[in-house]
Prior knowledge:
The termini are far apart. Strands 1-14-9-2-3-4-15 form a seven-stranded mixed beta sheet, with helices on both faces. The chain has a two-stranded antiparallel sheet with strand order 5-8. The protein is about 40% helix and about 20% strand. Helix 2 crosses helix 9. The N terminus is likely disordered. It has twelve helices and 17 strands.
Amino acid sequence: MADSNGTAKTAESRARGIRATGRRRKGPTRRRRALTITLCTLTSVVLLGGAGLGYVYFKLNGNLKGVDINAALGHDRPKNVDDGSMDILVMGSDSRAGKNGEYGKDEGGARSDTAMIVHVYKGRKKASVVSVPRDTMIKRPDCIKDGKDVPGARRAMFNTAFEVGGPACAVKTVESISGVRMDHFVEVDFTGFKKLIDALGGVDITTSKAIDDDHSHLHLKPGKHNLNGEQSLGLVRTRHGVPGGDGSDLGRIQLQQAFIKALMNQVKNVGVLTNPTKLYDIADTATRAITTDTELNSVSELTGLAKSLGNIGSENIDMVTLPVTYDPANPDRVVPLEKKSEQVWDALRLDKAIPKSAIKGSAGDQGGTDKYVK
Length: 374
């Protein structure tokens, strides 16, 4: 993924303690369910690195799992533009295997329950996050999984890419619809998410109206709450029982985004600087919870990324949903609004802010469920 000067740049970056990885090597990103987990992971690792705990490095490295996205996709990808920005695909897995079986029947595959493209701008002081509804109908490209061809489809739900082709196919699908090269990939599953929230001591939120959803087993009265891992998972999975919601994935996305903002703000006050035991527990839990691309699956790489993300707060993140409308062929699905979606992708490619005009009129901007949680 390096350009003609890649070797020199990499050596220089390593000398600074930050490895230049990905298309836009100096910038990072973050947001939403899995993205927040990434943030916690990176922050914890940075602090541990400052303590110089060699054993801890070794232990945490052993927790991490990596997928070689670059080798799987080869050279048929969007241009690798080294302009100081960065794009990361962050996904939440809805696999029902193992301990996740309590959330539904294991059908032998995992789909992307959450998908976000996180764009960190040059200078690493702000970011934009584009949530892709899992029920979005797209053209899925041909993929390869475990050495076997996985045929594409002219019309498929976005989240099937992860199910049939794994992380590499999910990345290829995002790149094919956006024209934006993904520098990194991060995935987290249900169980890892719950454990991380519990390790953090829960997340404080305020609901302005009651949330009652038997599907996600979440029942909250209006007021302030400290959500544990199970309750937090229920909130980010909730589609029903939310005032103002339409029971669709679009309303759930807005809840997820509101939750992430609350979690990001709380991480700042978790007290890990003065509590080494808590710090280690968070770092250990977080590194067990995630799967990354092979360029990020080491403590040193995550440390470098964390340092470059340090100036981005929740107030500096613009979160949007991919502009969509309900599918005329199936009202339970959505399809991208092509011109508006292209405005979004153009902004990311050019490292510019996403224009408000791109989101106006999109079904994803009309759920209104975010105003019930803060």
